Amino acid sequence: MPHVSTSTAAHRAAVLGSPIGHSLSPVLHGAAYAALGLSGWSYEAVELDESSFPAWFAGLGPEWSGLSLTMPLKRVVIPLLASVTPLADAVGAVNTVTWTPERYPVGHNTDVHGIVQALRSTGLSSATVGCVVGAGATAASAVAALAGLGCSSVVVQARSARRAGPVLEVAAKLGVAARISDLTAFEDVAAADAVIVTLPGEAASSWSAGLTVTDPPRGAMLDVSYHPWPTDAASRWSSAGGAAVGGFEMLLHQAAEQVRLMTGLDAPLDDMRAAGEKALAER
Predict the structure, then answer these.
(1) Do both 235 and 172 map to the same domain?
(2) pLDDT of 64-90, one tens digit each?
(3) Looking at the 3D structure of the chain, how many domains does it have?
(4) Contact present, 36 and 265 (Cβ < 8 Å)
(5) Taking every annotated instance into account, which residue ranges of this chain make up the domain Shikimate dehydrogenase substrate binding N-terminal (predicted)?
């Protein structure tokens, strides 16, 4: 845990990725610093891709206390770190970097925490059967989150078995039985205790167009999209009486965990939520 100072001593942090202009992280972290009285802390957004990141990372000075990583850097960073947490290692993705007092960089994954807390906000306390829609980077964290909620089996809906391979590897590492199904296998969605939709943009719209929910759904749904909200899938789910939550809740909780890791202080969740909601309302 880093040493924390509430003085004006400089502590820098940033969110990195490409594209990065849409990120809510500066709003959420900035609100946390203000509420915690961390006047010496700053948080910015830095546009970096896979080719430019390693040299930038190598040049960081001792004033840097934390990094938030988005795509495409969550895997690129791993070889540059001194260590990663067991969870980040299992998922194969790092979205947070902190430094030890000796200045050794450590990789963490707070996306899993964010997903778990988002699902719990619907009233879900545990799950046995899960369904992950999509097989990209977020799907791996989704499987880990479902494992954390007690899922013993997970269905991964994907366009192809090849795309789902890395996600199935994560499930195997965590002792979760996983199988692949087609994106049109909506019976798997209906049978799940928890459904996590990780598809982006048009792919999500195409998938949800086939989703028919007539009876109150058995499980809770997390759609990781957060703007605009609600998504078509979430609207169909909630209109039938199901519990649905969006990606903002996930983003909020993963950012709060980042604040804790970077500063050593409990995150002011209410202040961060208010700032994030205000920023989204203005988009």
Answers:
(1) yes
(2) 999 999 999 999 999 999 999 999 999
(3) 2
(4) yes
(5) 15-97
